[in-house]
């Protein structure tokens, strides 16, 4: 919340979405947010695709969304139990489609221009540091997505 407030005026007055851990967005909210945005940020626990229905995503046409930033793959004991319970009802190929590379490919096929994402499990704190770096470079410094990814790689 602090990071969003800090950079709100630099980018847009129209930040829209679901913030906090009070409730999970419905599938309709996920679809609305993805189809009506020019940039989409997911900062959450476990795999992004474990929150979105695969069938709905592959049927979506979202060319207005030029950038998706996925700061996912954060894990806690509670999130691990949730994802483990959820995964028991999925096939192995379905779980494989929730990987970082597969997620980027699916979003690209749906029309997203660029996808930035984590590649391995991390903590919310490490993702918060990444988010701060992303916003500092993209919004404050005006760097391109490629230049910003380069900064993150260092």
From TrEMBL:
InterPro entries in UniProt: CFAP46 (IPR039586)
GO biological process: axoneme assembly; cilium movement involved in cell motility
Transmembrane segments: none
Coiled coil: none
Protein name: CFA46 protein
Organism: Rhabdornis inornatus
The encoding gene: Cfap46
């Amino acid at each position: 919340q602090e990071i969003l407030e800090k950079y709100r005026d630099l980018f847009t007055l129209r930040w829209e979405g679901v913030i906090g851990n009070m409730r999970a967005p419905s599938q309709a909210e996920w679809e609305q947010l993805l189809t009506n945005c020019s940039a989409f940020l997911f900062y959450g626990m476990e795999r992004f695709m474990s929150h979105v229905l695969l069938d709905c995503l592959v049927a979506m046409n979202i060319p207005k969304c030029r950038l998706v930033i996925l700061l996912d793959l954060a894990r806690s004991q509670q999130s691990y139990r949730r994802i483990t319970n959820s995964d028991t009802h999925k096939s192995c190929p379905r779980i494989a489609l929730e990987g970082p590379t597969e997620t980027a490919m699916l979003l690209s096929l749906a029309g997203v221009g660029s996808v930035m994402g984590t590649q391995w499990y991390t903590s919310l704190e490490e993702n918060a540091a990444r988010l701060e770096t992303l916003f500092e470079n993209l919004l404050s410094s005006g760097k391109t997505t490629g230049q910003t990814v380069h900064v993150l790689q260092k």
